[in-house]
Design a protein that fits this description.
By secondary structure, the protein is an alpha/beta fold. It has 13 helices and 17 strands. The longest helix has 25 residues.
């Protein structure tokens, strides 16, 4: 009897492994994961150089990991097992009180030759290069300039976790120590942390961004920095539309499928349809003399600041400004009483909901630092801007050198 049970167990094991192997080759590859909101590794191109330098094998490992059958379900099972084992972490994501999630592990950028993946460490020299670039830009900028570096969820929501916060404190301290003497620096880390600890919903539980309330706090502090606190629109004036089934990218990475969704809010005013958001792209054409000419073309335009099509998708955060684009403008098309100031915002996705508040007071030009839009002086001159705001999350400061390239 024992031999029969052993044979059955072996057969089931072979069928299980063989089934996954066959499914891997039969099922088509997916280019994009809506759940994780990222592009997946497809089968890499083979080349001798790629094989020698290790790129091919590295990409193959990523290919197997990204295209493995029933990947999302297995990640979820792993998350449950880690929870049962009381580890409080899965795939580099912490699980804290009240279902709060926060990414713990990042890809620490040192230089273009050195990036340490999945670490809670950061390279001080990379942070200092960015700080130096901010200070130099401030010295050379002939119009008002402000820089805000929003903290990560793991920095704001640290009270929800048992994980020690020494590295968060050290990272924020590095910024404060080297930027405290800069008139351009606006630090709201402590404000957000205090609000979170008091129970305010300023950062999502399942996503790495701040909530609309968190963005409103940032908007209010920016206006105060500019001496315009009297113009801040009171929160009570907004109509709040709530979407209750928002799962962010942190939830997708963590695999904690049992965590309840976030609530995403859209704050509107009656005159929102008088604003126009326009997305631009660069198009290369050849003139009569055979020269390549790059021109800017509008590829999308819509009223207000929201593309509600995203509310039907998993990536609901992209409802703000239609997600991230290289270059955008937000303008008021109603009756103007006097000339509105125009501001340039160089940013990452944290700025998107903030723009919806600042647009009530200013015409806005938006450029994405991750797209290489780092010549802020040129953009400010091109659009005749009156102010420049850099709004770039601390996670990106750790993971790349885009802020260090501003000029």
């Amino acid at each position: 009897m024992k031999k029969l049970s052993d044979k059955i167990l072996i057969i089931l094991f072979v069928l299980f492994i063989g089934g996954f192997g066959m499914a891997f080759f039969i099922l088509p590859d997916n280019d994009f994961s809506e759940e994780e909101n990222r592009y997946l590794q497809t089968f890499p191109d083979f080349g001798i150089d790629e094989l020698i330098n290790g790129d091919f094998t590295e990409n193959m490992n990523s290919y197997y990991a990204d295209q493995f059958p029933w990947r999302n379900g297995l990640v979820g099972i792993k998350g449950v097992c880690e929870t049962i084992a009381l580890k409080g972490e899965n795939n580099g994501v912490l699980l804290g009180k009240g279902g709060q999630l926060a990414v713990r592990l990042f890809d620490a950028y040192k230089d273009r030759h050195t990036v340490v993946e999945d670490t809670d460490y950061f390279f001080s020299e990379n942070i200092l290069r960015a700080i130096d670039a901010v200070k130099k830009f401030e010295q050379n900028c002939d119009i008002p300039f402000t820089v805000m570096i929003p903290p990560r969820t793991v920095d704001v929501a640290k009270s929800a976790f048992l994980y020690p916060d020494e590295l968060s404190e050290r990272l924020q301290g590095l910024l404060d120590e080297n930027l405290s003497d800069s008139a351009s620096y606006l630090n709201i880390s402590r404000i957000l942390t205090d609000l979170y600890d008091s129970g305010e919903y300023v950062y999502y539980r399942t996503d790495h961004h701040w909530t609309t309330k968190g963005a409103y706090v940032a908007y209010s502090e920016i206006m105060k920095k500019w001496g315009m606190e009297d113009l801040v629109i009171d929160e009570s004036e907004f109509k709040k539309e709530t979407v209750t089934d928002f799962y962010g990218t942190t939830w997708s990475r963590a695999g904690y499928k049992f965590i309840s969704p976030d609530s995403l809010e859209i704050w509107t005013l009656p005159d929102d349809d008088l604003y126009v958001t326009t997305v631009y792209d660069s198009k290369n054409t050849v003139d009569d003399k055979g020269n390549t000419v790059t021109e800017k073309v509008s590829v999308k335009s819509f009223t207000s600041f929201y593309n509600r099509e995203y509310l039907l998708k998993k990536d609901k955060y992209s409802v703000f400004l239609d997600g991230t684009h290289a270059e955008m403008t937000v303008t008021y098309e109603g009756n103007r009483e006097g000339e509105r100031e125009k501001i340039l915002i160089a940013k990452d996705s944290f700025a998107n909901p903030v723009v919806t508040f600042l647009a009530r007071h200013f015409d806005i030009v938006v450029v994405n630092l991750a797209s290489g839009m780092c010549d802020l002086t040129a953009y400010a001159q091109e659009y005749d801007c009156d102010r420049i705001l850099v709004l770039y999350n601390l996670e990106n400061l750790v993971e790349n050198d885009n802020l260090a390239n501003i000029k």
